[in-house]
Every structure is written in C-alpha cells, then in structure tokens.
Write a structure and sequence with these properties.
13 helices, 3-stranded antiparallel β-sheet, 47% helix
Amino acid sequence: MTERSFALDTDEHRRWLAEQTELLLRFTAPALDRERGGFSWLDDAGRPVPGEGKQLWINGRYTYSAALGHLLGRPGQAGRVQHGLDFLRTGPLRDTAHGGWFSSSDAPGASDAKESYGHAFVLLAASAATLAGFDADDLYAHALDTLERFWDDGAAMYADTWNRDFTRLDPYRGQNPNMHLVEAHLLAFEVDGDERHLARATAIARRLIHEVAARNEWRLPEHYREDWAPDPEYGAEDPDSHFRPYGATVGHWLEWARLLVQLGAAQGAGSVPDPWILPAARQLFGRAVADAWDEDRGGFAFSTDWSGRILNPHRLHWVIAEAIGAAVALYRATGDPAYADGYRRFWAYAAAHHIEADGSWIHELDADGRRASGTWSGKPDLYHALQATLFARLPATQSIALGLASGRLDTPA
C-alpha cells in the first residue's frame, strides 16, 4: 500500500480503515475469558496469558472498545460489552468491602491498591456503554463516587494511588491518570451534561498544559511530588516502567493535543473556548514531531530528556496511534495541510512496521522498526489501535462513542 493511499477523506482510505477495524476486533476476540470472567492480556499470537491475571485498565479498555464495536454494528460485540460490565460489577476487581476497584487480580503479585488510572477507564467504559444503550448507571455512579476520593480540590487534580481501605494515600502524583480522566470526563459530559465534568477537565488541562508544559518548552513532565511540583528525575532507576517511565513521554503530548481539540469544542458548545487551548495543542504536536519523529527511519521515539535528547528510541504502538489522532484533530480544527501530511506519514509508518497480516499491532519496535521488547510483552491493548482506525471517520470535536451513537461515521461510497 503506497503512502498516497493514506490520504484523508478518500474512499480508498476509508475502506482500508474499516478493514483494519474489523481485523482488530477479530484478533482480540480471544481476550474474552468465559471461564473466569473479564478480559485477558494477549500474547503476540493473540492467546490469553493467564499469568498476567486481570488488569483493571485492560478490562475497562476492552469494555469501552466493545461498546464502540457494538455502535459500529459488529456481531457479537453486545455480548462482550455485557460481559465486561458484569465483570466490573461483580468480578474480583470490585472491592465490595471498601469500594472502588483493585488494580489487578488473579495473579501472583496482584495489587489491591486503588489507582485513579484504572478508575478512569471504568468511567470511560460505563459512559460508552451508556451511549451504546446498555444499563451501566450503577458502574457510572460508583466510578464517579470513588474518584471523589482521589480529587484534590486545592490542586484541582487527581491523586494517584490509595491503599485498599482508603486510609493511606501514596505521595506520588502523575499526569497520566489526570490526562485519561480528562478523556473520561469529556465523555461523561456527553452522557449526562453535568458541567462539573467540563470544569474538572478544564482545570486539569489548564494546570498541566497551560501552566506546566508551557513553562517547560512544551515538554510535559510526567511525574510530580506530593505538592504537585514536577519531579523530573523520578523513575531514573527504572526507565522502562510501563506506567511511570523516566523522562518525557512524547506520546502523551500527542494524546493531549487531540484531547485539547475536543475540550475546546466542548467549551465552545456553551460559550467561547479558552483562547490558549488550540495554540497549546499545536505547540504540543510540534514539540513531539521536532523532538521525537525520525525523518530518516520513521516512527516516534518513546521518550526524551528535558532538552529533547532521545532517551528511549523504541517505537511503541500507542504513540503512533495517538499521533494519527492528533494529526487528524488538528487538521480538522485548523485546515493546515501540514497536519494532513503528518497523518499520511504516520499511517504509512504504522502500516509498514506495526500492523501484521492479521491486523494486530506489534506493541513495541526498535528504532529500525524491528520487533522489540523492554517495555511491553505481547499485545494486551486494543484501545489505542482501534481508535486510530476511527479518528478520521468521525468528527474530532466529540468522542468516538458519541460520534458513532449519533450516526456520524463517514462511510465510503
């Protein structure tokens, strides 16, 4: 497939995207665990990995993805949504004694910590399921109630990790769960129209992007101390951590760029959007491309230091997926053809290096585009790749779930 085939808004590209969506849903079908409930981590061949147990973030994301699949009209996805909702409602991740959900279960070393990161995906799953016509009101309400325990009103941010009975709060603070809670609150706002969702999403974005990233040449710090002062050296002893890697995580700048476009649109529906939002989205995208896109070999490096020097040159699938989403969102918001050009280049790299014949995405590559490991093993995650196949076929001013529920999918002639 030539790069020309990735041109936005062409029937050829839309058909290819639809094929990729179908292949991803088919490849990840075995993740559903009929015997023990929930969804499993998959290996490179698409087989469940029992040793990974059940992860809250994976089960939230798979339930959300199934809701998208159902809204797309794909057979069998309704059963997967209900399966995911039932597991979140009554499975071993749910803590019926103290409330909320455990981070993981059913594996050696499973954690009974309560993390705002995983709870963000419960809220995302319940919101998408509601838009898809499922009864998820109890999960939606419980996720919001539990998240109140994490909310720091003075900082206007979410804390990261409680112990099981919510008596001890870890001093670590992170931007990653807050970014995903912006995503979840924007979707929740589309579900119930409660302005508090929009206010929280705006407050988090203002602090992390308009204040912190803008003062740091648009390199957003990942890690923070208890007082929310950036902690740039956090993680130096474990630089390839899944969720707390050392240095600046470039993919999150791209993810934020997309979310800022959506946030601005949500604000603009009721009044004038904050004037800093779209310029900030453009700056984050530009910084990511300048620091981490490899013009010679293609692909985004995973992380940099605070001067833009590459720390981890590996290419992670979710980073290029978010670059695709950011490029199309900024193109829709600005009409600047440079973003459409970026979209073509990013898809060309993903198709040539990440996507296998069965439609699954290799989660980690080295700088030369060869299969690698170090941060990830297997193919546990559907959410980023699935969304990448849908970004260009739906409005960038609302969530994918609402776009599908509203019948706004752009289908090829």
